[in-house]
Amino acid sequence: MTGLIGRDFLSLADLSPEEVRGLLHLAAEMKGRKVTPHCPKLLGLVFSKASTRTRVSFSAAMFQLGGQAIDLNPSVTQVSRGEPLADTARVLDRYLDVVAIRTFAQEDLETFARYAEIPVINALTDLAHPCQALADLLTVREQFGRIEGTTLTYVGDGNNVAHSLLLGCAMTGANVRVATPQGFEPNPDIVEKAKAIANGRSEVTVTQDPIAAVKDANVLYTDVWASMGQESEADDRLPRFQPYQINNDLLAKADSEAIVLHCLPAHRGEEITESVLEGDRSRVWDQAENRMHVQKALLASILGAA
């Protein structure tokens, strides 16, 4: 994975399909290692959005690599007082070895990356959640022994998670279906990019029909119906999204060995039922653990410690 040294990771589209597969292979290998590479580096966490799994998994990954993470919550830095991102980026560039950013606008992430020479990792924006998609793909690989040829169906809001799944599945040869209510479809440019990457080797489908989308699927996936920053819309969305709930009826229409994923946090009784989330087909806790392993592989590859 030496080809990732010093590079930004703003989207899965920044990598080639071969690099994505290599990262997943490295993550699986590192997950099984008792000894990890020693990488005495500094990771900055610049998080403008609330976080549990992303914050802790990046911190744990960096610690296990022998480095250290520094929490740079914007509310306690000069960013909260109006310091331009470009200025913050150029200063942190002098102190840190790599930075992970969790923010709203993809443009803010790209501005930071433009002014910082150190590698910048997308820890979530409104447009993309690439680290989550890597963990999802690793979970699929662990469950089925392969990714290529499997079918992953995402139902719900065509949000940042859906965008990264479209790209990640296309890159690794998985069929991907996204079912959303009308008006909540994923970004059409990302859909077209995923189709171009798949190039007919796998299926990329966007539909409003959740029943058709889950037929014979190996993986059913959902996320909250109103993402961070959209909470005021939650009540209005509920009736429109109800047919897209992952429940026992919908799960029964998938493959008999299908698994269920959710990037968490989950709103039980909304996008997923308690019985499915806690059922024997759920792999959400393995999926959450895998955030740490893929991010450790990503950090090690970017910092040259793999």
What this model shows, in words?
The chain has 306 residues and is α/β, with parallel strands linked by helices. The protein has two domains: 2-128 and 291-303, Rossmann fold (3-Layer(aba) Sandwich), CATH 3.40.50; 132-287, Rossmann fold. It is built from twelve helices and nine strands. The strands form two sheets. It has a five-stranded parallel sheet. Strands 2-1-3-4 form a four-stranded parallel sheet, sandwiched between helices. The model has no long low-confidence stretch (mean pLDDT 95).
List keywords for this structure.
Rossmann fold, four-stranded parallel sheet, 42% helix, single chain, 306 residues, alpha/beta, 9 strands, five-stranded parallel sheet
Kindly state the percentage of residues in helix.
Answer: 40-55%
Q: Strand arrangement, largest sheet?
A: 7-6-5-8-9
Total helical elements: 12
Judged by helices, strands and strand pairing, the structural class is alpha/beta
Total domain units: 2
Largest sheet: 5 strands, parallel
The percentage of residues in β strands lies in: 5-15%
User: Overall mean pLDDT score?
Assistant: 95
CATH topology of the largest domain: Rossmann fold
Parts with pLDDT < 50 across at least 5 consecutive residues: none
- What is the class of the largest domain in the CATH system? Alpha Beta
CATH architecture classification of the largest domain: 3-Layer(aba) Sandwich
Please report the total strand number as a whole number: 9
Q: From N to C, what is the helix and strand string?
A: HEHEHEHEHEHEHEHEHHEHH
Shape: globular
Distance between the termini: 7 Å
Annotated CATH homologous superfamily of the largest domain: Aspartate/ornithine carbamoyltransferase
What is the radius of gyration? 19 Å
